[in-house]
Amino acid sequence: MFVDHVKIYVKAGDGGDGMVAFRREKYVPNGGPAGGDGGHGGNVVFEVEEGLRTLMDFRYKRHFKADRGEHGMSKGMHGAKADDLVVKVPPGTVVMNAETKAVIADLVEHGQRAVIAKAGRGGRGNSRFATPSNPAPELAEKGEPGQELDIILELKVLADVGLVGFPSVGKSTLLSVVSAAKPKIGAYHFTTIVPNLGMVETEDGRSFAMADLPGLIEGAHQGVGLGMQFLRHIERTRVIVHIIDMSAMEGRDPYEDYLTINKELEQYNLRLTERPQIIVANKMDMPGAEENLEEFKKKVGEDVKIFPISAVSRQGLKPLLFEIADLLEVTPEFQLHDIVEEESDATVLYKHESKRDGFDITRADDGAWVLSGGSIERLFKMTDFSREDGIRRFARQLRAMGVDEALRERGAIDGDTVRLLEFEFDFVD
Questions:
Q1: Which CATH architecture describes the domain 161-335?
Q2: Which of 7, 113, 127, 284 minimizes the number of CB atoms within 10 Å of its CB?
Q3: Sign of the Cα pseudo-torsion (245, 249, 254, 257, in order)
Q4: What is the mean pLDDT of residues 97-115?
Q5: 392: pLDDT strictly greater than 50
Q6: pTM given for the model
Q7: 360-426: CATH topology
Q8: Would you say 232 and 223 are in contact if contact means Cβ atoms under 8 Å apart?
Protein backbone atom coordinates (compact mmCIF):
# COMPACT_ATOMS: atom_id res chain seq x y z
CA MET A 1 0.00 0.00 0.00
CA PHE A 2 1.31 3.45 -0.94
CA VAL A 3 0.65 6.08 1.74
CA ASP A 4 1.63 9.67 1.01
CA HIS A 5 -0.28 11.76 3.59
CA VAL A 6 -0.53 11.17 7.36
CA LYS A 7 -1.18 13.17 10.51
CA ILE A 8 0.80 12.27 13.64
CA TYR A 9 1.46 13.58 17.17
CA VAL A 10 5.00 14.22 18.46
CA LYS A 11 6.15 15.18 21.94
CA ALA A 12 9.68 16.00 22.98
CA GLY A 13 10.92 14.83 26.38
CA ASP A 14 10.42 16.95 29.50
CA GLY A 15 13.47 18.04 31.44
CA GLY A 16 14.31 16.19 34.67
CA ASP A 17 13.45 17.82 38.02
CA GLY A 18 16.10 19.57 40.10
CA MET A 19 16.65 18.22 43.64
CA VAL A 20 16.61 19.76 47.09
CA ALA A 21 19.41 18.13 49.10
CA PHE A 22 22.07 19.07 51.65
CA ARG A 23 25.53 17.79 52.47
CA ARG A 24 25.36 15.38 55.39
CA GLU A 25 28.90 14.38 56.11
CA LYS A 26 30.63 13.69 59.37
CA TYR A 27 32.62 16.64 60.69
CA VAL A 28 30.99 18.98 58.14
CA PRO A 29 28.48 21.03 60.12
CA ASN A 30 25.98 23.07 58.05
CA GLY A 31 27.25 21.49 54.83
CA GLY A 32 25.07 23.62 52.59
CA PRO A 33 22.94 22.78 49.55
CA ALA A 34 23.93 19.86 47.31
CA GLY A 35 20.97 19.24 45.03
CA GLY A 36 21.85 18.49 41.41
CA ASP A 37 20.15 19.72 38.19
CA GLY A 38 17.82 17.58 36.11
CA GLY A 39 18.96 16.41 32.67
CA HIS A 40 17.55 17.79 29.42
CA GLY A 41 14.82 15.80 27.67
CA GLY A 42 15.20 14.17 24.25
CA ASN A 43 14.29 15.97 21.00
CA VAL A 44 12.10 14.36 18.35
CA VAL A 45 14.32 14.19 15.26
CA PHE A 46 13.28 13.09 11.76
CA GLU A 47 15.96 11.47 9.61
CA VAL A 48 15.79 10.51 5.95
CA GLU A 49 16.22 6.80 5.24
CA GLU A 50 16.83 6.05 1.58
CA GLY A 51 15.31 2.58 1.67
CA LEU A 52 11.84 3.84 2.60
CA ARG A 53 9.38 4.62 -0.18
CA THR A 54 6.11 5.22 1.64
CA LEU A 55 4.66 6.63 4.91
CA MET A 56 2.99 3.28 5.58
CA ASP A 57 4.63 2.85 9.02
CA PHE A 58 2.89 5.98 10.29
CA ARG A 59 -0.53 4.42 9.63
CA TYR A 60 0.01 2.07 12.56
CA LYS A 61 2.03 4.23 14.93
CA ARG A 62 0.88 7.82 15.17
CA HIS A 63 2.26 8.91 18.56
CA PHE A 64 5.96 9.58 19.08
CA LYS A 65 7.20 10.59 22.54
CA ALA A 66 10.83 11.16 23.46
CA ASP A 67 12.15 10.23 26.93
CA ARG A 68 12.40 12.79 29.71
CA GLY A 69 15.72 13.70 31.33
CA GLU A 70 16.82 12.09 34.60
CA HIS A 71 16.11 13.92 37.83
CA GLY A 72 18.90 15.64 39.75
CA MET A 73 20.44 13.74 42.69
CA SER A 74 22.09 14.45 46.01
CA LYS A 75 25.78 15.28 46.38
CA GLY A 76 25.46 17.76 43.49
CA MET A 77 25.00 15.01 40.88
CA HIS A 78 23.17 16.09 37.74
CA GLY A 79 20.67 13.87 35.94
CA ALA A 80 21.59 12.37 32.58
CA LYS A 81 20.34 13.91 29.37
CA ALA A 82 17.81 11.76 27.50
CA ASP A 83 18.62 10.42 24.04
CA ASP A 84 16.88 11.97 21.05
CA LEU A 85 14.04 10.00 19.47
CA VAL A 86 15.07 9.47 15.83
CA VAL A 87 12.17 8.74 13.45
CA LYS A 88 13.01 7.46 9.94
CA VAL A 89 11.15 9.01 6.99
CA PRO A 90 11.42 8.43 3.22
CA PRO A 91 13.19 10.98 0.97
CA GLY A 92 10.78 13.62 -0.31
CA THR A 93 8.91 14.07 3.00
CA VAL A 94 7.54 17.52 3.81
CA VAL A 95 6.77 18.14 7.52
CA MET A 96 4.05 20.71 8.31
CA ASN A 97 2.51 22.04 11.49
CA ALA A 98 -1.08 20.72 11.44
CA GLU A 99 -2.46 23.84 13.14
CA THR A 100 -0.67 26.65 11.29
CA LYS A 101 0.14 24.73 8.05
CA ALA A 102 3.68 26.18 8.27
CA VAL A 103 6.41 24.02 6.73
CA ILE A 104 8.83 22.84 9.43
CA ALA A 105 11.18 20.84 7.20
CA ASP A 106 11.55 19.51 3.67
CA LEU A 107 13.63 16.32 3.82
CA VAL A 108 15.11 15.06 0.57
CA GLU A 109 18.67 13.74 1.03
CA HIS A 110 19.71 10.48 2.67
CA GLY A 111 20.85 11.08 6.27
CA GLN A 112 19.37 14.59 6.42
CA ARG A 113 17.99 15.47 9.88
CA ALA A 114 15.56 17.99 11.29
CA VAL A 115 14.52 18.66 14.90
CA ILE A 116 10.73 18.61 14.82
CA ALA A 117 9.94 19.01 18.55
CA LYS A 118 12.42 20.62 20.95
CA ALA A 119 13.06 19.09 24.35
CA GLY A 120 12.61 20.86 27.68
CA ARG A 121 15.66 21.83 29.77
CA GLY A 122 16.32 20.23 33.12
CA GLY A 123 15.21 22.00 36.30
CA ARG A 124 17.89 23.54 38.54
CA GLY A 125 18.71 21.98 41.92
CA ASN A 126 18.86 23.95 45.18
CA SER A 127 22.65 24.41 44.97
CA ARG A 128 21.93 26.88 42.11
CA PHE A 129 19.80 29.15 44.31
CA ALA A 130 22.23 29.64 47.21
CA THR A 131 22.90 33.32 47.96
CA PRO A 132 24.70 35.11 50.84
CA SER A 133 21.32 36.08 52.27
CA ASN A 134 19.88 32.56 51.83
CA PRO A 135 22.77 30.05 51.94
CA ALA A 136 20.51 26.98 52.42
CA PRO A 137 17.51 27.37 50.06
CA GLU A 138 14.82 24.70 49.98
CA LEU A 139 14.08 25.59 46.40
CA ALA A 140 14.41 23.61 43.17
CA GLU A 141 12.82 23.78 39.74
CA LYS A 142 10.86 21.10 37.98
CA GLY A 143 11.87 20.18 34.45
CA GLU A 144 10.66 22.32 31.56
CA PRO A 145 7.93 20.61 29.50
CA GLY A 146 8.99 19.46 26.04
CA GLN A 147 7.34 20.80 22.92
CA GLU A 148 4.30 18.87 21.67
CA LEU A 149 2.47 19.32 18.40
CA ASP A 150 0.37 17.65 15.74
CA ILE A 151 2.15 17.48 12.40
CA ILE A 152 1.23 16.47 8.86
CA LEU A 153 3.66 14.42 6.78
CA GLU A 154 3.39 14.64 3.00
CA LEU A 155 5.43 12.49 0.68
CA LYS A 156 6.18 14.04 -2.70
CA VAL A 157 7.76 11.54 -5.06
CA LEU A 158 11.34 12.37 -6.06
CA ALA A 159 11.32 12.05 -9.84
CA ASP A 160 13.06 14.10 -12.52
CA VAL A 161 10.24 13.65 -15.03
CA GLY A 162 6.49 13.51 -14.39
CA LEU A 163 4.03 12.03 -16.91
CA VAL A 164 0.74 13.95 -16.92
CA GLY A 165 -2.44 13.59 -18.90
CA PHE A 166 -6.04 12.45 -18.79
CA PRO A 167 -6.84 8.90 -17.59
CA SER A 168 -6.03 6.12 -20.06
CA VAL A 169 -3.88 8.18 -22.46
CA GLY A 170 -0.97 5.71 -22.14
CA LYS A 171 1.20 7.05 -19.31
CA SER A 172 1.70 3.68 -17.60
CA THR A 173 2.27 1.99 -20.96
CA LEU A 174 5.02 4.49 -21.84
CA LEU A 175 6.72 3.98 -18.46
CA SER A 176 6.55 0.19 -18.83
CA VAL A 177 8.28 0.19 -22.26
CA VAL A 178 11.06 2.71 -21.46
CA SER A 179 11.96 1.36 -17.99
CA ALA A 180 11.87 -1.85 -15.99
CA ALA A 181 8.84 -0.65 -14.02
CA LYS A 182 5.76 -2.86 -14.18
CA PRO A 183 2.77 -0.64 -13.46
CA LYS A 184 -0.74 -2.04 -13.51
CA ILE A 185 -2.33 -1.35 -16.93
CA GLY A 186 -6.05 -1.71 -17.58
CA ALA A 187 -8.64 -0.60 -20.12
CA TYR A 188 -10.52 1.56 -17.62
CA HIS A 189 -10.09 4.96 -16.01
CA PHE A 190 -7.91 5.44 -12.93
CA THR A 191 -6.07 2.14 -13.33
CA THR A 192 -3.12 3.92 -11.74
CA ILE A 193 -4.05 5.11 -8.27
CA VAL A 194 -0.51 5.51 -6.88
CA PRO A 195 2.57 7.01 -8.52
CA ASN A 196 4.84 4.50 -10.25
CA LEU A 197 8.56 5.21 -10.50
CA GLY A 198 10.99 3.85 -13.06
CA MET A 199 14.61 4.51 -14.05
CA VAL A 200 15.05 5.30 -17.73
CA GLU A 201 18.38 5.03 -19.56
CA THR A 202 18.98 6.56 -23.00
CA GLU A 203 21.18 4.94 -25.62
CA ASP A 204 24.03 7.36 -24.90
CA GLY A 205 24.13 6.28 -21.25
CA ARG A 206 22.23 9.13 -19.57
CA SER A 207 19.63 8.12 -16.98
CA PHE A 208 16.77 9.79 -15.10
CA ALA A 209 13.83 8.90 -12.84
CA MET A 210 10.38 9.02 -14.42
CA ALA A 211 7.09 8.97 -12.51
CA ASP A 212 3.81 7.84 -13.96
CA LEU A 213 1.29 9.87 -11.99
CA PRO A 214 -2.43 9.22 -11.56
CA GLY A 215 -4.71 10.59 -14.29
CA LEU A 216 -5.79 14.17 -14.11
CA ILE A 217 -9.31 15.41 -14.88
CA GLU A 218 -11.07 18.76 -14.81
CA GLY A 219 -11.38 20.13 -11.27
CA ALA A 220 -8.41 18.10 -9.95
CA HIS A 221 -6.94 21.14 -8.13
CA GLN A 222 -10.12 21.12 -5.99
CA GLY A 223 -9.80 17.40 -5.28
CA VAL A 224 -11.96 15.97 -8.09
CA GLY A 225 -10.95 12.43 -9.14
CA LEU A 226 -7.59 11.74 -7.57
CA GLY A 227 -7.06 15.49 -7.42
CA MET A 228 -4.60 16.56 -4.77
CA GLN A 229 -3.21 13.07 -4.38
CA PHE A 230 -1.81 13.39 -7.84
CA LEU A 231 -0.85 17.02 -7.92
CA ARG A 232 1.39 16.99 -4.83
CA HIS A 233 3.73 14.54 -6.57
CA ILE A 234 4.36 16.67 -9.61
CA GLU A 235 5.77 19.52 -7.49
CA ARG A 236 9.21 17.93 -7.33
CA THR A 237 9.57 17.08 -11.02
CA ARG A 238 11.84 19.20 -13.20
CA VAL A 239 10.34 18.32 -16.59
CA ILE A 240 6.66 17.63 -17.30
CA VAL A 241 5.86 15.22 -20.12
CA HIS A 242 2.31 15.93 -21.23
CA ILE A 243 0.77 12.89 -22.96
CA ILE A 244 -2.22 13.38 -25.25
CA ASP A 245 -4.36 10.65 -26.82
CA MET A 246 -4.29 11.64 -30.52
CA SER A 247 -6.64 8.85 -31.55
CA ALA A 248 -9.46 10.57 -29.59
CA MET A 249 -10.78 7.09 -28.66
CA GLU A 250 -12.62 8.47 -25.65
CA GLY A 251 -14.49 11.01 -27.78
CA ARG A 252 -12.56 13.99 -26.36
CA ASP A 253 -10.85 16.67 -28.44
CA PRO A 254 -7.01 16.41 -28.00
CA TYR A 255 -6.63 20.23 -28.00
CA GLU A 256 -9.29 20.60 -25.30
CA ASP A 257 -7.46 17.94 -23.23
CA TYR A 258 -4.23 19.93 -23.61
CA LEU A 259 -5.82 23.18 -22.40
CA THR A 260 -7.66 21.51 -19.50
CA ILE A 261 -4.55 19.83 -18.06
CA ASN A 262 -2.47 23.00 -18.27
CA LYS A 263 -5.25 24.95 -16.59
CA GLU A 264 -5.34 22.43 -13.72
CA LEU A 265 -1.57 22.64 -13.24
CA GLU A 266 -1.74 26.43 -13.19
CA GLN A 267 -4.61 26.57 -10.71
CA TYR A 268 -2.98 24.13 -8.32
CA ASN A 269 0.32 25.98 -8.15
CA LEU A 270 1.37 28.75 -10.50
CA ARG A 271 4.98 27.65 -10.23
CA LEU A 272 4.19 24.39 -12.04
CA THR A 273 3.85 26.35 -15.26
CA GLU A 274 7.53 27.42 -14.95
CA ARG A 275 8.65 23.87 -15.66
CA PRO A 276 9.55 22.93 -19.24
CA GLN A 277 6.85 20.81 -20.84
CA ILE A 278 7.20 18.22 -23.60
CA ILE A 279 4.07 17.44 -25.65
CA VAL A 280 3.74 13.77 -26.62
CA ALA A 281 1.13 12.66 -29.14
CA ASN A 282 0.44 9.01 -28.20
CA LYS A 283 -1.51 6.22 -29.93
CA MET A 284 -0.32 7.32 -33.41
CA ASP A 285 -0.86 3.74 -34.64
CA MET A 286 -4.64 4.15 -34.27
CA PRO A 287 -6.92 5.21 -37.16
CA GLY A 288 -7.56 8.95 -37.39
CA ALA A 289 -4.55 9.88 -35.25
CA GLU A 290 -2.62 11.53 -38.13
CA GLU A 291 -5.56 13.81 -39.01
CA ASN A 292 -6.04 14.76 -35.38
CA LEU A 293 -2.33 15.56 -35.05
CA GLU A 294 -2.42 17.92 -38.05
CA GLU A 295 -5.44 19.68 -36.57
CA PHE A 296 -3.75 19.86 -33.15
CA LYS A 297 -0.56 21.40 -34.63
CA LYS A 298 -2.61 24.15 -36.32
CA LYS A 299 -4.27 25.05 -33.01
CA VAL A 300 -1.16 25.11 -30.77
CA GLY A 301 1.03 26.85 -33.36
CA GLU A 302 4.39 26.04 -34.93
CA ASP A 303 6.44 27.05 -31.87
CA VAL A 304 5.31 24.07 -29.77
CA LYS A 305 7.39 20.96 -30.36
CA ILE A 306 5.36 17.74 -30.52
CA PHE A 307 6.69 14.18 -30.38
CA PRO A 308 4.40 11.65 -32.13
CA ILE A 309 4.83 8.17 -30.61
CA SER A 310 3.12 4.85 -30.16
CA ALA A 311 3.97 3.43 -26.75
CA VAL A 312 2.55 0.02 -27.61
CA SER A 313 4.57 -0.44 -30.83
CA ARG A 314 7.56 1.56 -29.43
CA GLN A 315 7.58 4.03 -32.35
CA GLY A 316 9.23 7.43 -31.87
CA LEU A 317 10.55 6.73 -28.34
CA LYS A 318 14.23 7.35 -29.08
CA PRO A 319 14.00 11.08 -30.02
CA LEU A 320 11.60 11.64 -27.10
CA LEU A 321 14.00 10.19 -24.50
CA PHE A 322 16.92 12.19 -25.94
CA GLU A 323 14.87 15.39 -25.72
CA ILE A 324 13.95 14.68 -22.06
CA ALA A 325 17.61 13.96 -21.17
CA ASP A 326 18.74 17.18 -22.92
CA LEU A 327 16.15 19.25 -21.06
CA LEU A 328 17.12 17.79 -17.69
CA GLU A 329 20.72 18.84 -18.23
CA VAL A 330 19.75 22.52 -18.53
CA THR A 331 16.78 22.66 -16.14
CA PRO A 332 17.51 23.63 -12.53
CA GLU A 333 15.75 22.12 -9.55
CA PHE A 334 12.66 23.98 -8.42
CA GLN A 335 12.45 24.58 -4.69
CA LEU A 336 9.09 23.69 -3.24
CA HIS A 337 8.68 26.49 -0.78
CA ASP A 338 9.64 30.10 -0.93
CA ILE A 339 10.85 30.15 2.66
CA VAL A 340 13.35 27.45 1.88
CA GLU A 341 14.39 29.20 -1.30
CA GLU A 342 15.43 32.29 0.63
CA GLU A 343 17.95 30.26 2.57
CA SER A 344 21.24 28.95 1.18
CA ASP A 345 21.43 25.25 0.35
CA ALA A 346 19.62 24.10 3.43
CA THR A 347 16.31 22.41 3.07
CA VAL A 348 15.56 22.56 6.81
CA LEU A 349 14.46 25.94 8.00
CA TYR A 350 14.40 26.84 11.68
CA LYS A 351 12.59 30.08 12.37
CA HIS A 352 12.67 31.97 15.64
CA GLU A 353 9.47 31.28 17.50
CA SER A 354 8.98 33.92 20.14
CA LYS A 355 7.57 32.60 23.38
CA ARG A 356 4.43 34.40 24.40
CA ASP A 357 5.70 36.76 27.06
CA GLY A 358 2.29 38.22 27.69
CA PHE A 359 -0.62 36.67 29.53
CA ASP A 360 -4.36 36.76 29.10
CA ILE A 361 -6.95 37.30 31.83
CA THR A 362 -10.49 36.05 31.27
CA ARG A 363 -13.52 35.55 33.52
CA ALA A 364 -14.95 32.07 34.03
CA ASP A 365 -18.67 31.31 34.39
CA ASP A 366 -18.25 30.81 38.15
CA GLY A 367 -16.70 34.28 38.55
CA ALA A 368 -13.07 33.10 38.87
CA TRP A 369 -10.28 34.97 37.08
CA VAL A 370 -8.51 32.67 34.59
CA LEU A 371 -4.85 33.26 33.69
CA SER A 372 -3.40 31.85 30.46
CA GLY A 373 -0.32 32.37 28.29
CA GLY A 374 2.81 30.48 27.22
CA SER A 375 5.29 31.98 29.70
CA ILE A 376 3.01 31.92 32.72
CA GLU A 377 1.97 28.27 32.14
CA ARG A 378 5.63 27.29 31.70
CA LEU A 379 6.51 28.93 35.04
CA PHE A 380 3.65 27.10 36.70
CA LYS A 381 4.76 23.71 35.38
CA MET A 382 8.35 24.32 36.51
CA THR A 383 7.38 25.30 40.08
CA ASP A 384 7.53 22.80 42.94
CA PHE A 385 4.42 23.64 45.01
CA SER A 386 5.27 21.11 47.70
CA ARG A 387 7.81 23.54 49.18
CA GLU A 388 7.18 26.94 50.71
CA ASP A 389 10.18 28.52 48.97
CA GLY A 390 8.88 27.41 45.56
CA ILE A 391 5.44 28.98 46.16
CA ARG A 392 7.02 32.26 47.35
CA ARG A 393 9.25 32.39 44.23
CA PHE A 394 6.24 31.76 41.97
CA ALA A 395 4.32 34.61 43.64
CA ARG A 396 7.31 36.96 43.14
CA GLN A 397 7.56 35.95 39.44
CA LEU A 398 3.86 36.66 38.85
CA ARG A 399 4.21 40.05 40.53
CA ALA A 400 7.25 40.88 38.40
CA MET A 401 5.30 39.98 35.22
CA GLY A 402 2.61 42.48 36.21
CA VAL A 403 -0.14 39.92 36.87
CA ASP A 404 -1.17 41.44 40.24
CA GLU A 405 -1.48 44.92 38.72
CA ALA A 406 -3.44 43.64 35.72
CA LEU A 407 -5.92 41.81 37.98
CA ARG A 408 -6.50 44.98 40.03
CA GLU A 409 -7.16 46.95 36.85
CA ARG A 410 -9.71 44.34 35.74
CA GLY A 411 -11.55 44.74 39.06
CA ALA A 412 -10.23 41.83 41.15
CA ILE A 413 -10.75 42.30 44.89
CA ASP A 414 -9.34 40.64 48.00
CA GLY A 415 -10.47 37.01 48.27
CA ASP A 416 -11.31 36.49 44.55
CA THR A 417 -10.41 33.11 43.07
CA VAL A 418 -7.64 33.09 40.47
CA ARG A 419 -7.27 29.98 38.29
CA LEU A 420 -4.15 28.89 36.38
CA LEU A 421 -4.41 25.51 34.57
CA GLU A 422 -5.63 23.10 37.31
CA PHE A 423 -4.39 25.32 40.21
CA GLU A 424 -6.61 27.79 42.11
CA PHE A 425 -5.50 30.42 44.60
CA ASP A 426 -6.97 33.49 46.34
CA PHE A 427 -6.13 37.00 45.26
CA VAL A 428 -4.66 38.95 48.18
CA ASP A 429 -4.66 42.72 47.73
A1: 3-Layer(aba) Sandwich (3.40)
A2: 7
A3: negative
A4: 87
A5: yes
A6: 0.68
A7: GMP Synthetase; Chain A, domain 3 (3.30.300)
A8: no
